[in-house]
Amino acid sequence: MMQIQQGMVGVFDVLGYRALIYGNETRAVAEIITKIFKCLPEVTTSGILTPLDSPETVQWVGERIGRIDVRLFSDNILLTLPLNTMEVDASVDIPHFLAYAAKLMRVAFDNGLPLRGAISHGEYFLAEQCFAGKTILDCHEGAEDLQLAGCVVMPDTANYFEKVARNTDTDLRFHQFIFPFVVPVRTGQSIELPVLDWYLPMEDWGAHQEDIHAYIINAFQAHSKVITPKELSKIDNTELMMRKSIQRKQQ
């Protein structure tokens, strides 16, 4: 029976994927895909659960993020999570979805695969290797517009988060993973949008990098990728976003 789901959707792709393919022999690309890209879901889950302080917490959080469906195809990643219509349940599930998406981006970046993405909520359809839905398409198009390694939250979805947070008194849990940033897009414009804080939203995610610029350069040129002038602007934009993320925690 066909089932239309209602919930969270995230779509991501790898920046510099074409450069990765052209900069490596097929065998090397296959190893990167097999050892890094395909392992991202498992490593992401482990990265979230490992720092937790009790078996009970590990089990509970593991069950929450275990409901997230992760699908890899080409250089794209699709995340979906069905949401209960009860806002009190959504207030628990949405932060876990944001945490998973943020950790996914951090793990990929640390392994030389910078991602760009978009997050929304609405209807979608999944069936084995097939998927459909305007929400998925909107996220795909939103991600493709970005000129940095980052993830935007669609404005209507950010408003939905605010509504859920306001009605369930969970405001800080949402704001921990989202902040406003003037995002450069493909048309040459810059638009203020909510973005996902994927670098260091939680203290147990690791130490702050001493040289942010070198950290970003290393990710963009990993795996023999060549940095072109087009990528230089994305590197600069990524650094500005990350510094904004760091700054807001110091205030």
Report the CATH topology name.
Answer: Alpha-Beta Plaits
Strand portion, in percent?
Answer: 15-25%
Q: Which class do the helix and strand fractions yield?
A: alpha+beta
Please write the CATH class name.
Answer: Alpha Beta
Largest sheet: 6 strands, mixed
- The name of the CATH architecture is 2-Layer Sandwich
Provide structural commentary.
- The chain has 251 residues and is of the alpha+beta class.
- The protein has a single domain (4-250), classed as 2-Layer Sandwich (Alpha-Beta Plaits), CATH 3.30.70.1230.
- It contains ten helices and eight strands.
- It has helices at 17-22, 26-37, 40-49, 55-65, 87-110, 134-145, 155-168, 171-175, 212-221, 229-250, and strands at residues 4-14, 69-73, 76-82, 115-127, 130-132, 151-153, 178-184, 190-196.
- Helix 3 (40-49) crosses helix 5 and helix 5 packs across helix 7.
- The longest helix has 24 residues, at 87-110.
- It starts with a strand and ends with a helix.
